[in-house]
Amino acid sequence: MNYSEAIVLTHDTWKTHAGGIPQFAYLIATARKVDGESQDDDEVLLLRVEGTAPLAMESDLHAVREEALRTALSQNADPSPSMVLDVKLDPFTRNRVSFTGLRCRILGTFFEDDRDGKREIAYGADVDNFYATSTYRVLKPVGEGLSYIASYLKPSDGPVDLVQIGHVRYSATTRRAKASKQADAAVKVNIHDFIGNKTGLLGMTRTGKSNTAKIVIARTFAVSEQRRAAGKAPIGQLIFDPQGEYANPNTQDGTEVAAIGERHVRIFKFGADGSQAHVRPLGINFYDPDQIEAVQGLIADKLRSDGSAGYVNDFAATHFTDVAGDYSQTTRAQRGRLILYAALLRADFKVPQKNAGTNVPYSVLVSIKADLRAEITRVLGRDPFRQAGKQWSVRADDVRGVVDSIISLREGGNAHAADFCDDIRWQSTEPIYTGQTSGSSRVRGWRNLIDLKDFHNEDTQRDPAFEIYDHLKDGRIVIVDLHVGSPPIVRALSESITRRLLAVQTRVFTSGATPPAIQVMLEEAHNLFAADRYKDDGDVWVRLAKEASKLNLGMTYATQEVSGVAHQVKANTANWVVAHLNNTKEVQELSKFYDFASFGESIIASEDKGYVRLKTLSSPYIIPVQIERYDRALVNEARAAAGDPPLPLPVEG
Known about the structure:
653 residues; 12-stranded mixed β-sheet; 19% strand; 21 helices
């Protein structure tokens, strides 16, 4: 033994009686008497089997085995394996060759300690002394003892709520563990480790990442409902669902997160028609002034592919929202929206029948002086304006005619038209409408908007991002079902929702208040947190990764490419759930964290679904776990926490 490693001497008979000693099995070593009082140190070393170790007489024993086989071959006329391998050794030699050595890593020490006046078992991740190895007894923990070791949590002043996530599984081959009834040692985790922290779900497709995520989501929901019952703020959960597996039942898990209940789950997706109260439309009304921020963000992201960066940057930086109490800024915002809506019309975006919240046929409000109105009327040969209080409304059919007239009058030297256009909002939007910059160079302009038409829903009364945030603040699970829609649309919409979430949480944080607790679930994280993107502080996903903690945002990310996620994100990951990875590059990257290097070969070799290596914030070491299946019973546990009746369990067979 030394401070980091121990060589354990064992025997074939002892291994058989112990139910086998698989690689990575936990062993405990103690210098005290197992069955009585001892004068030795009252502490237990925790060991993990890493492999085999040669014994002092190992070469001699190999020579004995070889000589016995040679003798058998020369003395038996029948050289078949059954004859040759049935070597008759004398009892002393047979006993000697039955001893083997196990190379074990010393994970740490369990010992008794005083904490707040109470005696409890503590754990240290090293050893502070060791004796001659002959004084130690080594035992294999099973059952409740193994469950205690696998579920041990470092002492903490934070909340603790233990929930079962699976059972200990040392190896892909489980025959001997089941035969010896040692395959059911429960692994429990503190669900609060996952709330407000980063969790990485790492592994190939179809290895159980989503199943694990669903378990964490359901357990977090139960904690949220307990908080609500205690008069505390609940926890909202936002799930970006690119495959539709959280919103819809599937054969892999048999049930879905949405089964927790319509009262508690909201699904946002393209094509929702409002027939189900908990399923909401995902589109944005591009013509609604109240949704202009989301519209501007989507258009700005799309325009960045255009060659002329000047007007694009100006468009992205300005504001098209009305400013309460500031007539001048509101007037300019309305003029900017007028030409922006003209660009939408040119791109053939469908116009709402009514103004939002009214029975008035759709029209655009604008402040415009009488002299310019008269000139436009003269150019068009008709009066397109209708008075609306101190402002004027322009029907959708007249918007492009009004805008074209203003541009034409300005180009003809009309001072009133020039004054009307003299603002960054109009100037940065005009190239979008006309398709050319002030220098007459051609740009795609309004043609860029055509790709955004899938986002548009003229019947949407409110920006979904605001509605989503309200549900999150109320402690609901919000699933953004993105399995329908082209990748660019899905990506832009996800970024728009996340950008709004960050903006509101930041506003609450900077006001001195505590932002509501929200968990965010992300798939395909290697596309979001790549190292080259992490340098861009303006990237919404980079901001989420960097600012999540202070904004009270927990984040669970899933990926099959460990190396594709920026090192900074992994370095700040509190919980690691590692399933099968199929190449050494990803395993080598994983090996930079904790002692996952020890499990490298088995991570590549074992493809069993749900078989993971788990390291949580409160656990002091890595646990090999078979994650339990997310099923109807777990759904019913979540429903019970909310006071809802259980769903019927499926009939076996």
